[in-house]
Amino acid sequence: MIESGRLPELVQDRIDAFVDSRTSILAPLGSDALDFAAVSREFLRGGKRFRALFCWWGWRALSGSPNTDPDAVAAIVAAASSLEIFHAAALVHDDIIDNSDTRRGAPAAHVRFSSTHRSSSWRGDADAFGRSSAILLGDLLLGWSDELLDEALDALPDRAAARTARLEFNRMRSEVTAGQYLDILEEQAWASRSEAEQLEAAWRVIRFKSAGYSIESPLVLGAAIAGAAPRDLDAVRAFGLPLGVAFQLRDDVLGVFGDASVTGKPSGDDLREGKRTVLISLTRAALPSAHVRIVDELLGDPDLDEAGVASLQATIRDCGALDQVEDLIRSHTAEALAVLESLDIDDEARRSLRTLATAVTVRQA
Q1: Key word Transferase present in the record (predicted)?
Q2: By CB atoms within 10 Å of each CB, which of 7, 115, 218, 352 scores lowest?
Q3: What residues does 268 pair with on adjacent strands?
């Protein structure tokens, strides 16, 4: 049985080997296609690998005991790696949608392609080329995530487990795509909704855009690959969903208050993008109408300067919305941990999942 601390390394090795196999398919297209594929390697390196870790421990917890079968280990590592490729694809597309210039402290994919266009003195619009190229890169990564998952599931002798895992992945993929749409919809449609409707929409985005694919589905995918019964899958889901909500609420806080040197994105980026999060909905609900109008005028301004960001941060903090969200993070985490204590799993798996729960909810990036 491998140590889970080695999982990020094993996932990276599996991703590298998979990209090598797909690069050979692109070789006949020439050096330009190979250069395009090479960009994918950079976006598949690093990161916290939370999704892979939750997939691993979902499998390990429901396997009943450490599994030393090399084929079983290879299958779960491949499945965990497919989630990381899916995540990379989502980030590439997300940065285009949000007009984010950076990712993990480096240029976002569309910015990198635009820079290549400019430095090469090509004809046409460099920014349009960058966006189009990044959309295609994200599409390529989405396809690759599916192919690698198929390789993992094809290796499973338990075909019922493979089908259950595939259905979970399919559900996750549909939900996160529709959830992303709900997110951008709310940035445009919020003014036509009541305060209660805005808050409800913000919670819906958390549930379907992030909470599911960040934690719930990776856990359930791993448990399904382990051959878990439906009632056990439901129990794992009951742990993963509130923890996923807490994870996204923390992400929303970092999107407003995060340290750029740690998050790799400019401080207050969510404010410039006009994200209509639970944090913002609670802020608007706590303010008098005159102050709400000021918040609405500043929120979503792509040219918002540091003084404007600081002003909004102070408003969010002083009205009590930040404290409310911190309370929500604690309550959802507590709900998840209570379920974890009730799961019929061994002590090592419980300890590891408890440690992961802390890592995703108490973090700076």
Answers
A1: yes
A2: 115
A3: none
Are 79 and 221 within 8 A, CB to CB? yes
- 33's CB contacts (< 8 A; 6+ apart) are 26, 27
pLDDT at 4: 63
DSSP β-bridge partners for residue 103: 106
Copy the structure tokens of residue 316. 């969010």
pLDDT at 91 over 60: yes
Average pLDDT score over the chain: 94
* Cα gap 19→38, rounded to integer Å: 9
pLDDT digits (tens, 9 = 90+) for 18-52: 999 999 899 999 999 998 988 998 889 988 999 99
CATH architecture, domain defined by 4-361: Orthogonal Bundle (1.10)
Structure tokens at 176: 């996160």
Per DSSP bridges, beta strands 102-103 and 106-107 are antiparallel
Res. 116: pLDDT tops 60: yes
Task: Output the CA–CA distances (angstroms, integers) from residue 221 to 47, 54, 111, 112, 260, in the order listed.
Answer: 20, 9, 33, 33, 33
Show the DSSP H helices in the chain as ranges.
Answer: 7-26, 31-43, 50-63, 70-97, 109-119, 126-154, 159-189, 195-205, 217-225, 230-257, 260-263, 269-273, 278-286, 289-298, 306-318, 321-342, 347-361
> CA–CA separation, 172 vs 48, rounded Å?
20
Could you tell me which residues are beta bridge partners of residue 102?
A: 107
* pLDDT tens-digit map of 133-191: 999 999 999 999 999 999 999 999 999 999 999 999 999 999 999 999 999 999 999 99
Give the N- to C-terminal CA distance of the chain in Å, as an integer. 30
Measured on CA atoms in the order 200, 255, 127, 307, is the torsion positive or negative?
positive
CA–CA gap between residue 160 and residue 143 (Å, rounded) = 23
Domain residue ranges of the chain, discontinuous segments joined by +? 4-361
What does the alpha-carbon distance between residue 83 and residue 149 come to, in Å, rounded to a whole number? 8
Name which of 361, 356, 278 is nearest 7 in CA terms.
356
Tokens in use for 59? 């499998």
Structure tokens at 168: 């979970």
Which of the four pLDDT bands, split at 50, 70 and 90, describes residue 314?
A: very high
